[in-house]
Design brief:
The protein is α/β, with parallel strands linked by helices and about 350 residues long. It contains nine helices and 19 strands. The longest helix has 20 residues, at about 320-340. This is Gfo/Idh/MocA family protein.
């Protein structure tokens, strides 16, 4: 088995607790140190984990014990922190998206290649039994040749629950860049890379009101598109219709459906690791659940980091930087297509990530 990989975390915000709980129970990972601009927040975050040190960012990067830096900062800081880790000779695994824009993401990948270190990136929810069971159904030919997919996320906005939602409504945020990585990564896992996109986008209002926490009632500015829709043309020829919105109260639309010549799949929420996968065959037309057949069982946020750390040298990790860059370019291209009114051809591609056989997360 070997020694666990020592993890140093930069950023101890809301998502840290989920990663910390997963790292704690996976034998291949060891939470070693954390850093945050707010040292008191960092100390509070590691209270459940005795022995984990609180360091400055510079100290964490210089610490020879740290094998991989887990970058949980806000999207605007992802590239800066990743480049610091790379300069220190450490692998880095980022919370999504890989960077606030594709230019910065490309800088990260170039720097990593030059330094001989690896880059990984969330989301890792696609490695759970939900998306992976659907992936196996497609690979096993249960729906025949895939021809289309739909993906829908509709909420009233994160200011309804997040105490500090400002960055969701600033460049690098919005429903597409925030939630799109889950859906687009899942679509690429199911159907392969994207070649061309078309789209439309807009926003309903220029201000939002925080609905919870100590800043309840405070207005924040909105400078990004809060409703985005588009069509992704995959290299396989399949077409995915995508709707990402912070402008609706709710929806009964399935999170993801994939349609083939011989049947259709209902795929669970890509923001979760599990959930029922339903199959409807052309000759039956009734939905039936599929047994869990692939993916990491009882997975949590951070299983992608463990998968990344266990990936042999020379092989692209399932939650790898190349995939994350392609997802980011898909999103940027969709926004560009929405604003220009023309189709945009992508410059990047990626391999369809390797499937995950049914196995325990730990």
């Amino acid at each position: 088995m070997g020694e666990p990989v020592n993890v140093g975390v930069v950023g101890c915000g809301v998502i840290f607790a989920q990663y910390g709980q997963t790292i704690e129970r996976l034998p291949g990972l060891r939470l070693t140190a954390v850093a945050d601009l707010d040292l008191e927040r960092a100390r509070e975050a590691v209270r459940p984990y005795p022995g984990v040190e609180v360091l400055s960012v510079a100290e964490l990067m210089a610490d020879p014990r740290i094998d991989v830096v887990l970058n949980l900062t806000i999207p605007a800081a992802h590239a800066e922190v990743a480049l610091l880790a790379i300069a220190a000779g450490k692998d880095v695994y980022c919370e999504k998206p890989l960077a606030a824009n594709a230019v910065d993401a490309a800088r990260v990948l170039r720097a990593a290649a030059d330094a001989g270190v690896r880059v990984g990136c969330a989301p890792d929810t696609v490695l759970g039994v939900g998306t992976q069971t659907a992936r196996k159904a497609i690979d096993d030919g249960l729906i025949g040749r895939p021809v289309a997919a739909t993906a829908t996320m509709m909420t009233p906005g994160h200011e309804m629950w997040h105490p500090n939602p400002d960055f969701y409504y600033a460049p690098g945020g919005g429903p597409l860049l925030d939630m799109g990585p889950y859906y687009i990564t899942s679509l690429i896992t199911l159907l392969g890379p994207v070649t061309t996109v078309v789209g439309a986008a807009g926003r309903t209002r220029d201000k939002r009101v925080i609905a919870s926490g100590p800043r309840r009632g405070e207005e924040i500015p909105v400078t990004i598109d809060t409703h985005v829709t588009g069509v992704l043309v995959h290299a396989s020829g399949a077409m995915s219709t995508l709707v990402m919105s912070f402008d609706g109260a709710a929806t009964t639309a399935p999170k993801i459906e994939v349609h083939g010549e011989q049947g259709s799949l209902s795929v669970p929420d890509p923001n979760h690791f599990d959930g029922p996968v339903m199959l409807a065959k052309v000759d039956e037309r009734s939905w039936e659940p599929l047994p869990v057949s692939a993916g990491y069982l009882e997975a949590g946020r951070g299983v992608g980091l463990a998968d990344f750390a266990a990936t042999p040298a020379g092989r692209e990790p399932r939650a790898g930087g190349t995939l994350a860059y392609h997802v980011l370019e898909v999103m940027e291209s969709l926004l560009s297509a929405a604003h220009s009114g023309t189709a945009v051809t992508l410059t990047s591609t990626c391999e369809r990530p390797l499937p995950v056989a049914l196995q325990p997360a730990g």
